[in-house]
Amino acid sequence: MSIRKEYLSETREMAIVLQEMGEDIVNLKEKAIALPSGLPSDIHVQMSRPTDVMAARVADYADLEALYARTYETYLDRRRVILEASGGIPFREQLVIIRYYVRGESVADISEGMRISRSSFYKLLRSALIHIREQGGDDDTEEISCGCQVLSESMA
């Protein structure tokens, strides 16, 4: 199975967006069930405007939750593909791929957690991408190697 670097990058962005959407859903849910500030509950029931505001909050919450569910389904499919593609590479390289692309963790967090330098992180990432590419049968390793080089230079 062959996967491209763009596919990995899109999956990473999807993981990050899902984390942010999850936080937004929690905030909207809290707003949807909260009373407008400063209104006693008996006045809230009698006024139509606060009810409209509350209905709008519930609709926003429902829309975001539906979008989250659709995005999450796509993410799970991509996650499965990446895990299958990285199954045959060395463990540390697999760990870098999973933490960076599948979980969307930052380079600093991964480096700290694995107790390696940023330079070592990028070497592992480059090697992992090359191994994945070799397993897929593509002869496109130069593109991946250059992609890591650009990433490491832009993060420095």
Describe the structure.
The protein is an all-alpha fold. The protein is 81% helix and 0% strand. The two termini are 32 Å apart. Mean pLDDT is 78; it is low at 137-156.
Summed up:
The chain has 7 helices and no strands.
Number of beta-strand segments: 0
End-to-end C-alpha gap: 32 Å
Number of helical elements? 7
How would you classify the helix and strand content by structural class? Answer: mainly alpha
Give the fraction of residues assigned to helices: over 70%
Q: What's the overall geometry? A: elongated
Reading the helices and strands in chain order gives HHHHHHH
> How much β-strand is present in the residues?
under 5%
Query: Mean pLDDT score, rounded?
Result: 78
Key descriptive features of the protein:
156 residues, mainly alpha, 7 helices, disordered C terminus
Write the layout of secondary structure elements.
Blueprint: H1 5-33, H2 41-46, H3 48-85, H4 91-102, H5 107-114, H6 118-136, H7 141-155
Helix pairs in contact: 1-3, 3-4, 4-6, 6-7
